[in-house]
Amino acid sequence: MRKLVLLFFVSWCYTVAFAQSDLGLSSYVEGEKLRESGQYLLAIDQYNQAISEDPKNFNFHFKKGMCYYKLRQADNAMESLLKAVELKPEVAEAHAKLGKLYEYKEKVDKSIEHYNHAFKYDDSPQKKLEYKNNILKLLIQLDRLDDTETHLVDILDINPRNVRALYYYAKLMNQRGEYSKAKDAASAGLDILRGSSPKETARFYYEQGYASYHLHEYDQLSDILSKANYGPYRALVTKMTPTYKYRVAKSYFEIYEYEKARELLSDAMMIDNSNPKVHELQIEIAHATTDKSEIIAFNNEILAHEENPVTRAQKHAELAQLYLVQGKYQQAIKMADMCLQQMPEHYLVGYIKAISYYKSENTKKAVDQLKELVKYRGLDLETKAQYNFSLGVIANEYGEWDTAKRALKTARLDNSYRYAATELLEEITLKH
Predict the structure, then answer these.
(1) Is 410 in contact with 375 (CB distance < 8 Å)?
(2) Is the pTM of this model over 0.85?
């Protein structure tokens, strides 16, 4: 008797299991026929019937989502596909479609999340590349190069000759200061593009040149940069030339930033030590920074016996500049004030006073003084550019970035300050 009961129970379990596996199957089969013939709305009705009978069947939700996808009903498609991957997370195609839908919705991080799941679960190398290329495209469009590394590595693991990935990897490594890796990636890209037009190769030569420049490998730099000197890379290439370094150094020299000027000239010399203008400016800096004690003493002696107020004011102006370059900033400010009492419109002395404030770490007073100076109507274009460039440099340090940006935009209108002002403006704009 017990055996009969047991046999009946086992038979009943099989019957129930079979019945459960058949739940919604006929509606699903009908839905498949309709979907394959392009009758998506009718197919959805059948899938809904199937889901009502077996709500935990992944396929029913997935195929319903695919119909909505074909009908371009994004919200409905996402709802069905999200339910599908909840029931069966390892289906790559469902994640791939969700990646597309979130991309359409401009929800980039969710799109990337599902493309990554698709990459994880898909066995096809070609499909894996497609998912990672989609992620790369999204990140590049949003200027999120820093988030691309793992995706670039995945692409290059599958296809080491993927030119697009090699370029962005070189660019990313340069951005991070890993110049050897950047150079290797750029060189690999150029090997693949051998014989291609400058339109195709210029970006790789630029990244290769940028890496070589920062690695202090100057022997072939000129040749590399000449090949990068194309289209949008011309201006970028210019920044790695001795002439550019000289022009920027000259601008900083004119606003008494001698150390900054020396550093730039040192860079220029490492690239090419035969540039005569670089040598000339180095001599000017050396002359400007020699000890001025004897000259200061001599001028003070003259001042002690001078009675003419105008001549005294002129001598105060000379001493203000001498004290400034000697590093005696409080004395420079004192002499400037004494001059300005007699000659309140003497803007050259007003400028020396502003720079002395800055050098004595009274940045706010320097900024305020320069704000007044740049309003002066009698300034020639180059002097106005000099004062605006100074204001841009000092306001940036003080944290008045809007003031700095406005001043630098004015300064770059003059050729003497164009390179230096543009470079600093780009740096501030990027950070603030």
Answers:
(1) no
(2) no
